[in-house]
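Annex B. Sample input.
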Amino acid sequence: MRGKAIGLVGMLASALAAQEISIPMEPLQIERLGIETVQPRLTREIPLGYVPAMVTVPPQAEVLVSAPVAGRIEEVRVARGEAVAARQLLVKINSPELLAAQQRLLAAQQEFKVAHAGYLREKPLFQDGVIAKSRFLETEKLFRQAQVTLAQTRAELVALGVPEAAVDRMVRIGKLDSRLALFAPMAGVITAREVTVGQWVDRLAPLLRLTATSTLWLEMAAPVALAERLSLGAPVQVESYGAKGTIFLIGGTVDPASQTVLVRAELNQPKGLMPGRNVTAALFQLAPETLLEIPRSALVEHQGEQYVFVRAPEGFQLRRIDVTAQTQEAAFVAGGLEATAQLVSRGTAALKAAWLGTGEEE
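Annex B, continued. Sample output.
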């Protein structure tokens, strides 16, 4: 079989004497030589290499839930590692401090009612000249002060985590409640639990740590030579997961010990990746124009020039191409080739031998 293939190549070499860039060949000959073709792929992404990476979250995605008041932990509704929804109940605290704040609000509410009634009573009297201006101004001053005090005490309760509706209800019915419920400020995962039921906690004591996982980052340490070829907006892939992202930060300094640059990407297709996971990320250079990606096996080099064999009606044609970049698996072509061309990816050695007239496979 090999003798027949070599004899066929010899005949092809004779046929190329008149025209070196065209190689006529019958379908049966193509089949005997085992020639296979492939179509180029349009792309702007040139693979640069692989770097170690860690899946992280943005700083704003981490929230520490702390005690707004001192008190005793009455309930803890979640455990470490549990996913929670926004506004889900997390903890209940029984707090004397909360009672004191409510009492101040009710007292401020009563003072406001008295001051408001006095203001409404004396305003028409002043307008009719029945009372002196100085007396009315003093009454108005007391009313404004009571108004401010009421707003401040109300805002204090809201700042402690009491919902507006609960404050309104307490003012309306005058009933105090020492229990304060704390809710999740956003959806996420409980990554730390610092308290247990029955524990006394001081004001601002840490209770839970919540991490939102809706947005994930990749943090990478890229060698300097590789980082210099990166650009903002360039793609990143974690091939083992099928995850994809986009670079949004290329550090402006080099780590003197490792000679690497910090690179961050946002994962727009996380594909199940979780924060803290160590992975290997593939980096890409973003080409200024669309290129054609072809397999390295289709590339033919001769005297410093690069060529491909293209399927033609009569057989194959030799095309010189402009290669922009190469990797171990692929070459990236900027010119000399159409996107619809069918390139020889297997059997190039036989065609090159015919082209050069060697009469043997290389």
